[in-house]
Amino acid sequence: MPTTRHLLTAALLLAAGVSTSQAAALLQISGGTDLAIPSSNDVLHPLEGNTRNRGILSTTADNVTLEFFYWGSESGYRNTLHAGGFSHTEIDNVAIGGGPVAFPGFGSPLFSYAQAGAGAIQLSFTSSGFSGTLLPGSPDLIKSIAFGYLTAAGKLSATPTDIALITLDDGGAGPDDNHDDYVGFVRATAVPAPAAAWLFGSALLGLAAAIRKRG
Questions:
Q1: Which residues pair with 69 in a beta bridge?
Q2: Is 42 exposed, middle or buried (0-12, 13-18, 19+ CB in 10 A)?
Q3: Do the beta carbons of residue 184 and residue 172 sit within 8 Å?
Q4: Looking at residues 105-114, what average pLDDT do you find?
Q5: What per-residue confidence (pLDDT) applies to 150?
């Protein structure tokens, strides 16, 4: 029969497990090559650090809510982000004449949805400037998507976070790799796991019952 000490240990282990899973970064960028933010990027050029060009953006856990936000653009084309059955078309030339667009913080997202299983986020771009659909990791030499980790303050991070920059270079007059033709970001949050919560609650109830019985 479990002792009070055993129940307390189980409860603490469950609590530690839930805490650890919540603390781990929910987004991961794999593959691709480093790309510094160039001064020609009219939306992001004050940022210091690298993005990953032609990489893949994935979630690292099951049951993650993804919220998509728009930052700005400098583009002569109408570029459209697609993800989770939703889409958003950029507003032309938001950054022209006004310099970099300030990090928008977290207002209402463009759209959001839950991704049930850990793995690659299925996003893509279409455009009035190129035919077909551009996917992450595409080997296309003219146009590409780059990702980067962001802090809550909108700064590039060298380590994984729960916020990821999404940037497009639509090719334009050529592959300048400045990636300011659509700039957005996605924030990932964990959906509470009912099973873990139930186990943790059961352990606490068992502990309380054992204490009452011994009291």
A1: 185
A2: buried
A3: no
A4: 95
A5: 98
